[in-house]
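Reopening this one. Same input as before:
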Amino acid sequence: MRNVVLRGSLLALLCLVLGTGPASAHASLVGSDPGDGASVAASPSSITFTFNENIGNPAYVAVRAPDGSKVDVSDASAVDAEVTATLAASDQKGRYTATYRVVSADGHPVEGTIHWTTTTGRIVEQVDPPAEKGFVHRHRAHFFWGILAAAVAIALLLAPLRGRSDKNDA
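Same output, byte for byte:
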């Protein structure tokens, strides 16, 4: 009986660890205009993000010019699977950074960043945006609670076995 409980506990733990895969229900970016990494002659007057599913309003878009200054963004709106925003004119040559934050159909926020480069305009000192947080940094709370839950589950599964061995020793 003891071996059956132990094997069952180990099987349950294995199923918990291996059975949880990443959720893929959130919207993901499938394209943009200008495209990520694109090189364009002049700064565009609008930007469009295309997702793999419909996006809800409100949608947020922020753009940084090569010198790190904000480019004015207006009329950001989501229609079906596209988010479009109007950009103020910018005459700087270099790498632009556009960040979006939208709500996917399942209600979860989705955010990301794209870059494009303009080949004409006035030359400015390029200011790189701060580095993005890594996967582990963004999900550290999830890891903490997952490890804590696994430890509690193991303790609860093994507690009956400890009690039985104490009775057998007496």
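So the earlier flakiness isn't reproducible anymore. For the record, The two ends are 19 Å apart (CA to CA).
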